[in-house]
Amino acid sequence: MCKVHIFWDNSNIHIVGRNHVMKKFEPEEDQKLFRSYFKNLFLLAHRNRPIGSAYVVGSIPPPNSNLWDHVRRLGVTLELLERSASNKEVGVDQTLQVSMFREAAKNNGHDHTFVVLTGDGAGKKLGQGFLNDLELIKNMGFNVEVISWEHGTHKDLKGFAEDNGLFIPLEDFYYNVTFIKGKRRADESLDFSKITKLTVDEQNQ
Fold first, then answer.
1. Each residue of 146-162: b (16+ CB within 10 Å) or e?
2. Where are the beta strands (DSSP E) in 40-137?
3. Distance CA 205, CA 203 (A)
């Protein structure tokens, strides 16, 4: 059975959702109350398939032990990176990329799926970035999926995923993967039928 390997850029997903997508779905709500719902994001990524590995990269400060403890309880390998003096994350892409290729090397020859939660496709012309890495992963024989907010996904990354694997726009699951602190809970009923292409294993579940 195909195992999935999940690589998740938390800040990319959260910031695009809060700063851009929320305005479309809940324009009257305060952005400061916007939260990503990790449980359903993780479920959307694995969709009840066996998990080979899972990595999420976030940043400190500010320390948020409750949040990161919850992520760890989901069974995810967590990497926390310090922010620079300009409040920018340092090394997020590189950390996930190293993890991707380690898992690819360990699982070479197996029919596994690599799932990336990010919309960042920059760096292709320099031979860098997630798009270039996913092309290499695909050429090694693995399946590839990208899960991201369509609004914030690089067009080349989206196009590659659609042509060579699967692209899942998070807008289709907005009320499942977000909540408004103190006001709206996340909808726990994920409807996987919204996904246009399902794997053979998923179709047989």
1. bbbbebbbbeebbebbe
2. 51-60, 77-82, 113-117
3. 6
**Cα-based torsion angle of the residue sequence 20, 23, 26, 30 in order, rounded to the nearest 10 degrees:** 90
Task: Report the alpha-carbon distance of residue 138 to residue 122 in Å, rounded.
Answer: 18
State how far the alpha carbon of 40 is from the alpha carbons of 47, 104, 127, 130, 176, in Å: 10, 25, 33, 23, 6
Do the beta carbons of residue 138 and residue 112 sit within 8 Å?
Answer: no
Q: What is the CA radius of gyration of the chain?
A: 16
Which residue in this structure is represented by tokens 């029919």?
A: 111
Question: Rounded to the nearest 10 degrees, how much is the dihedral formed by the CA atoms of 153, 183, 35, 202?
Answer: -70
Whole-model pTM: value is: 0.85
**Chain segment 19-52, per-residue pLDDT in tens:** 999 999 999 999 999 999 989 999 999 999 999 9
Structure-token match 């060579």, residue found:
164
Q: Please tell me the number of Cα atoms within 13 Å of 14 on its side-chain side.
A: 18
